[in-house]
Automatic annotation (TrEMBL):
One of its GO terms (cellular component) is membrane. Coiled coil: none annotated. The lineage of its organism: Bacteria, Pseudomonadati, Bacteroidota, Flavobacteriia, Flavobacteriales. InterPro entries: TMEM175-like. It is found in: Membrane. This is Uncharacterized membrane protein. The chain crosses the membrane at residues 9-27, 39-58, 70-95, 101-122, 151-174. The keyword Transport applies. It comes from Flavobacterium saliperosum. Pfam families: TMEM175 (PF06736).
């Protein structure tokens, strides 16, 4: 299969994910700054999730430039990634609607962790096909961020049970890396 089809499909799914997230932002009832205050949690959750989807889109784009041939394993791994990313609008709305409460923040972290694992699986499938001397293999290097991110997600998931603020800071830290 040609990789352009996989890229186009993935870009379309990611565009829909962002569209769904922005549609969750409702117009305020009033016409002053006070009318915006109740929307802050939703807006902040949208910003964080938009950044995450943007990071995945950017990384996916660069990774696909290294792909010469797509296998069935790569297709299924890509769908696996898109599945987890497609849940981001749900958990984004959930944490925004519930002011970053413990359980929604836990589930937000679970979705981020599963997305990271799915990305790693996709990357592994591409490396399996293209080998240890491939462009992707050289670009990844030691992949320190890829090793630290899941640990920070797990810390965030655990912290969400007793302090959702720390949980949120863990998720922000990963995005900043």
């Amino acid at each position: 299969m040609n990789k352009t089809r996989l890229e186009a499909f993935s870009d379309g799914v990611l565009a829909i994910i962002i569209t769904i997230m922005v549609l969750e932002l409702k117009v305020p009832e009033g016409m002053d700054f006070d009318a915006l205050k109740p929307l802050f949690p939703k807006f902040f959750s949208y910003i964080l999730s938009f950044i995450y989807v943007g990071i995945y889109w950017n990384n996916h784009h660069h990774m696909m430039h290294t792909v010469k041939q797509v296998t069935g394993g790569i297709l299924w791994a890509n769908l696996h990634l898109l599945f987890w990313l497609s849940l981001i609008p749900f958990v984004t709305a959930w944490i925004g609607e519930n002011n970053f409460a413990s359980f929604p923040m836990t589930m937000y972290g679970v979705i981020l962790l599963m997305s990271a694992i799915a990305y790693f699986i996709l990357q592994s499938q591409i490396l399996k096909k293209h080998g240890p001397n491939s462009v992707l293999s050289k670009a990844i290097g030691s992949d320190l961020k890829g090793k630290i991110s899941p640990i920070l997600y797990i810390i965030g998931i655990i912290c969400a049970n007793f302090n959702p603020l720390i949980s949120g800071l863990m998720y922000i830290a990963v995005a900043l890396m």
